[in-house]
Amino acid sequence: MTLFHFFNCAILTFGPHAVYYSATPLSEYDTLGTSIKSAIVYLVTALVKLVCLATFLKVSETDHFDPYQEALKALIGFVDVAGLYFALTQLTHRNISQNHKFQAVGLGWAFADSVLHRLAPLWVGARGLEFTWDFILQGLEANANLVFSISLAALGSLMWLRKNKPKTLIPIIYVCAVIVATMPSITSYLKRGLGWHFPEVVGFQLSISLVMALISCQLFSACQRPSY
Predict the structure, then answer these.
(1) How far is CA 45 from the centre of its chain?
(2) What is the pTM of this model?
(3) Which residue in 150, 180, 182, 195 sits closest to 24, CA to CA?
(4) What are phi and psi for residue 57, nearest 5 degrees?
(5) pLDDT at position 228, please?
(6) Cα–Cα dist 211/206, whole Å
(7) Cα–Cα–Cα angle for 31, 35, 39, nearest 5°?
C-alpha cells in the first residue's frame, strides 16, 4: 500500500511532464536535447540561488512573514529569469521554431525543479505507513509549476526573441512576467502572512497558473499575427 501511494504521487508529480512532451509536437521535432540542456541550466541556476540565499538571508527563528527578507528572496528569485534568458538565447538548439523552443525550455526547467524539490520528499514521506494528502497536493503543485514555467518561458521568448511585437502589448508582457517570476514570494506571503493552509495555496496556484497560461497564449498568438 505504501509503494502504491508513492507511485501514485510520483506519477501525479512527474507524469504530466512526459504526457506534455509526447502529446505535443515536441516529440515529433525531437526537442529532448533542448529540454535536457535547460534542465542543466536550471540546476546551475538553483545552485547560484542557494549560494545567494545562504549569503544574504538570515536564518529566521520564527515562521512569521518578514517583508524585508521576502523582498530580498524575491529579488534573488530573479536569478531564474537570468537562467531562462540564457537557456532561450544562448544555448544551441536544433532548427526548431520559436514556439517549440520555449515549450522545450519550459518543460525541462519545470521537470528539473520537480526532481530537485519533490523527488526526495516523495521517496522519504510517501512510502510512510500513514496516508497523507500532502504528497498528492505536492503533485498538484508540481503541475501548477509546470504551467508557470512554460508561461514564463513563453513570456521570455516574447521579450527577448520577438522583435516585431506590438508596442501596446509590451507592458502587459512585462507585468505578466513579473507576476509569474514572483509567484514563490506571493505564495510565501499567503502561507506566512495570511495563514493560508497548504490546500488553499495549491488551489490558488492552480487557478493563477491557468489564468497566466491563457494570457500568455493570447499574447503569443497576438505577437505572431503579421502587422499591417
Answers:
(1) 13
(2) 0.90
(3) 150
(4) -95, 145
(5) 44
(6) 9
(7) 170
Residue 226 is given by DSSP the state P
Integer distance in angstroms from the first to the last C-alpha of the chain?
62
Q: Indicate if the pLDDT at residue 213 is higher than 80.
A: yes
pLDDT at 193 over 90: no
92: left (phi over 0), alpha (psi -120 to 50) or beta: beta
**In this structure, is the dihedral angle defined by the CA atoms of residues 142, 147, 151 and 156, taken in order, positive or negative?**
positive
Joined together, the cell numbers standing for residue 18 give: 512526459
Residues 6 or more apart whose Cβ sits within 8 Å of residue 184: 73, 74, 77
Mean pLDDT, the chain, rounded, equals: 86
pLDDT at position 130, please? 66
Residue tagged 519545470 (cell numbers): 110
Say if residue 56's pLDDT is above 50.
yes
What nine digits make up the cell of 200? 488553499
